[in-house]
Write a structure and sequence with these properties.
7% strand
């Protein structure tokens, strides 16, 4: 629908639709001026009939609306308690779309005149004549027409500024001659005229043009030229070059505050994957360092992308419809129109996607979609559409599971490499997990080194935290007030210990418990039920054992490893126990009484009772895993074995299961 000129309505095929009757056209123009917003009945009556309203105002307006609906059956005109509205997106009506493009062009002008010129030319191209031409003599239309005409002139000035910044002075000189004649007292246009003449090598003409406007301002208004216009004259007198716009920023990836440790090979591998694939997804458990690796990759490959590398942080986004808007914000074109006003819907996902595609269609750029796991389907849809419609675009995504779309290349982000338990200080420091702990510990405890006195607890910390970077950094932060030996000794109660994350980090990255709980909250009901059943095994359970219990229905363990990464963050080999101690502590801490505890009993009872004594040797072997070392004060044992003994007392039926210091008996 177009109102920047004579009223024009087109169908989906682009064919014009006739709207007969002056009052019908005026009504449609009035509603199109504010698409999506309700216009009150009283306001509509006043706007359409002025000082001579009909006797039955309400019925007259209803009749007019009914006629308009019959004339345009495909145009949604909705009624409500406030009045009536045209239920179209702002992008479907030329006037609000013009204002959006003009605002975006003005925003880009200081740093990216080429983008500003394109946006402003597109905005001005929507005009076909005087605005609201089908509502002559109506006060509301005159006010709106004056406002839109002023916006059109301001957009023209912005476009000319962009042309001058790009060296297009020769092309705009004829236009400026006409504009100065139509607007002789508009100082910005007069200043542009002086600048264009000077850039064309006509210094004398430029000074004469300035003198002309100076004299006109004095004669007509009794004022001197503005400081900006006087500055232009001084540059001409001094033969100074035209000031150049500031270089446009090519990335919004924040500068990092800490060193990047232990991921050089991963960094090179991801950069190489981007040469071969247009979508690379970094997958791994929470706390593995996916976001940092993606950010470092974006900085490393920035020179390959002339139009920049842009980080879109999806962690704060709560709804799928907000994902395109978050990406727009990342590239500096967030929708700044007022939202959530009474009767006005929020900008739609479709409208934001249209803007994104328009912006990126011909650009060679990199987009980083960070933390996609809680919005996996909207993120996958956005990535697929952008890649299909923007041939020079590449995307790096981070998630705890793949996006699952055609053309996706996966880059698993594993825990950092661990040293053997008996490594010397020199040997330990050759492993990334120890290097990271040493670096972060030295930052909070000056003088800290990995030496003969500290190497054993340092290795123990790294191994018991399975080389997970976030957990290691949380442990290092504790060394601000505790010696390394004490930190290692307290890891049995790691969820209480590892709580000292950065105050500026997301809440789910400030504590180890929050990191694990975030993954559990992402599980489907079926996956959560399985996790409840498996969580009662403090030493872990093999995938084969879990599948045997479920009859092959544990797709999250083998069939769909992307979901398994949420439940089994450190699993690898098929026969390796699933490391569930941390998640189990979180989950058992949430178990209530009765039904929720009963639901975890069948797996434990059948698995333990069905296999009998040979299970002891298997569990004893699992207990060698560092994560499976349990002490009597563990939340897991206290909650499950101690406090729930009566409820799960027959789980083992006299068989053994993992206990405090090896194998214990559940009575």
């Amino acid at each position: 629908m177009a109102i920047l000129g004579a009223l024009l309505v087109t169908d989906d095929a682009g064919r014009p639709v006739e709207v007969g009757g002056a009052r019908l056209r005026a009504l449609l123009s009035r509603l199109a001026l504010d698409p999506g917003r309700f216009v009150g009945v009283d306001a509509l009556v006043e706007d359409l009939w002025g000082d001579t309203p009909p006797a039955d105002r309400l019925n007259a307006l209803q009749s007019l609306v009914s006629r308009l609906r019959r004339a345009l059956p495909g145009v949604p005109i909705e009624s409500g308690p406030p009045g009536y509205r045209l239920a179209l997106e702002a992008a479907q009506v030329d006037a609000p779309e013009f204002e959006r493009l003009a605002d975006a062009g003005r925003q880009a002008l200081p740093t990216d005149p080429a983008a500003a010129r394109r946006l402003l030319a597109e905005a001005l191209g929507l005009w076909r004549g005087p605005a609201l031409a089908d509502a002559p003599g109506l006060p509301w239309a005159e006010d709106a027409r004056d406002r839109l005409t002023e916006r059109r002139l301001a957009a023209t000035e912005d476009r000319i500024d962009a042309e001058l910044a790009l060296g297009g002075h020769a092309g705009v000189l004829p236009e400026l001659v006409e504009l100065t004649r139509d607007h002789p007292l508009r100082e910005r246009i007069r200043g542009q005229h002086v600048r264009a003449l000077y850039a064309a090598g006509r210094q004398a003409d430029a000074l004469a043009a300035y003198e002309d406007v100076r004299r006109l301002l004095a004669d007509e208004l009794g004022v001197d030229p503005s400081p900006a216009l006087q500055e232009i004259q001084l540059r001409v007198l001094r033969a100074a070059p035209e000031p150049q716009p500031a270089a446009a920023p090519r990335t919004n990836v924040p500068a990092q505050l800490t060193s990047f440790v232990g991921r050089d090979a991963d960094l090179a591998a991801v950069a190489a994957q981007l040469d071969r694939h247009r979508l690379v997804t970094l997958v791994g458990p929470g706390g593995a360092g996916k976001t940092r690796l993606a950010a470092e990759t974006a900085v490393r490959v920035l020179e390959r992308f002339p139009d920049g590398a842009w980080l879109a942080e999806l962690a704060p986004v709560t709804g799928g419809a907000e994902v395109p808007q978050a990406v727009l914000a990342a590239v500096g074109l967030a929708d700044t129109r007022p939202r959530e006003q009474p009767g006005q819907p929020a900008p739609s996902q479709a409208g934001a996607m249209t803007r994104l595609v328009d912006l990126l269609a011909q650009r060679c750029a990199l987009i980083v979609l960070d933390n996609c796991e809680h919005l996996i389907e909207p993120a996958a849809t956005l990535a697929a559409e952008l890649l299909a419609r923007c041939p020079r675009l590449r995307i790096v995504a981070t998630s705890r599971e793949p996006l699952g779309i055609t053309g996706e290349a996966l880059a698993p982000v594993a825990p950092l490499g661990l040293p053997p338990a008996d490594a010397t200080p020199a040997q330990a420091l050759r492993h990334p997990a120890v290097t990271l702990l040493a670096d972060r510990a030295a930052a909070v405890r000056p003088g800290f080194q990995v030496d003969d006195d500290t190497v054993a607890p340092v290795i123990e910390i790294c191994r018991r935290l399975d080389g997970m970077p976030l957990a290691i950094e949380l442990a290092a932060a504790r060394m601000r007030s505790l010696p390394v030996t004490e930190v290692a000794a307290r890891l049995d109660d790691r969820f209480r210990l590892l709580t000292g994350g950065s105050r500026t980090a997301l809440p789910r990255q400030q504590t180890l418990r929050a990191v694990v709980a975030w993954s559990w909250d992402l599980l489907s009901p079926a996956e959560a039920a399985l996790a409840d059943r498996v969580a009662v095994f403090p030493g872990g359970i093999t995938p084969d054992a879990a599948e045997a219990d479920r009859g092959g229905g544990v797709a999250g363990v083998h069939g769909e490893p992307q979901r398994g990464q949420q439940v089994v963050p450190f699993g690898g080999q098929p026969e390796q126990p699933l490391d569930l101690l941390g998640p189990a502590q979180v989950r058992i801490g949430r178990l209530g009484h009765g039904q929720e505890v009963v639901c975890v009993r069948p797996l434990d009872r059948r698995h333990v009772a069905g296999r009998g004594q040979p299970l002891d040797a298997e569990l004893a072997q699992r207990l060698q895993h560092p994560v499976a070392r349990l002490q009597p004060r563990h939340l897991l044992q206290q909650r499950l074995v101690g406090q729930r003994r009566e409820q799960v007392g027959d789980v083992g039926r006299g068989h053994r299961t993992a206990g405090a210091d090896g194998l214990g008996r559940v009575r």
